[in-house]
Amino acid sequence: MITAGIDVGSTAAKAVLLKDKKILGWAMIPTGWSPQKAGEEVLQRAVDAAGITAADIHRVVGTGYGRVALDFLDKAVTEISCHAMGANYYFPENKMVIDIGGQDSKVILVNKQGKVINFLMNDKCAAGTGRFLQVTVNGLGLELDQLDRLPPAEPVNINSMCTVFAESEVISLLAAGTAKESIVAGLLKSIAKRVSTMAGSIQENVNVTFTGGVAQNRLLREMLARELGVEVMVPPVPQIIGALGAAIIARNIG
Ligand code: ADP
Q: Distance, CA 229 to ligand 1 centroid (Å)?
């Protein structure tokens, strides 16, 4: 049986096709202005990548904020349940999932079957999200995928939690001659601290699976591991874990 999971997020739309626990293909595109179009297109791209046709798909489950715009779903499921299930595919022993996407950050406690036991979500404020990182890093004239290639540096203290204030703090630090790599390390540390506080408030000392687009940053993963004092494991493509979870849930229905 082939199932599809589609995650239309605030920034990126992702689709995964699954057959008997094997990932057949996946795709990712910017969400853009129309969640519905993005959902349809990303599914078609995953179908092309897998070398199948849309008629081969038995069931489709949607997630992400844009799921309400998709009218061809068999079921819509929260991102919390999907990230829990997707993380379980790679690291079933880990009891915690930390997901940092474009617009929110989540800490989820899971059991060995990938079911949610408890969760906390920050979606009220951009601090500790991909948006915060994107805006402040662009203020430095850098792109997100360059961050891991910067030379190691002592993190400078970033005091502003609000994205708008942090952006002007970054400009002041640059004007004062602070090295870009120290500012980047400071920004990442402020995210790591914020998310670890959230994680520590629901459970301490459990290994973590780190998902979402921001999990691609190696330095942040290391900082999170240090702050939490646990192992932080990242799946091969952390940004598609919500869509993968949706495809697994589609397989488990009925
Ligand atoms: P959403 O589901 O809300 O669209 P995603 O999980 O798809 O969120 O993640 C999108 C976010 O990932 C973007 O806001 C961006 O900040 C972040 N991102 C993308 N690439 C990288 C990277 N190489 N390093 C760190 N963050 C990244």
A: 24
Q: Which atom of ligand 1 is nearest to the CA of 64?
A: 2
Side chain identity at 78, as an amino acid letter? T
Pocket test for ligand 1, best of 100, 144, 187, 211 (most atoms within 8 A of CB): 144
The residue type at 243 = A
Distance CA 146, CA 134 (A): 12
- pLDDT tens readout for residues 104-127: 999 999 999 999 999 999 887 888
SS3 of 42-105: the string is HHHHHHHHHCCCHHHEEEEEEECHHHHHCCCCCEECCHHHHHHHHHHHHCCCCCEEEEECCCCE
Residues 120, 139, 102: CA angle, nearest 5 degrees: 25
CA-based radius of gyration for the chain: 18
Q: Tell me, what amino acid is at 201? A: S
What residue owns the CA closest to ligand 1's atom 19?
213
Which ligand 1 atom is the nearest neighbour of the CA of 99? 6
**Ligand 1 mean position, distance from CA 3 (Å):** 25
Q: What is the pLDDT of residues 193-202, one digit of tens each?
A: 999 999 999 9
Which two three-digit tokens encode residue 215? 């999990």
pLDDT digits (tens, 9 = 90+) for 131-181: 989 988 998 999 999 999 999 999 999 887 787 788 889 999 999 999 999
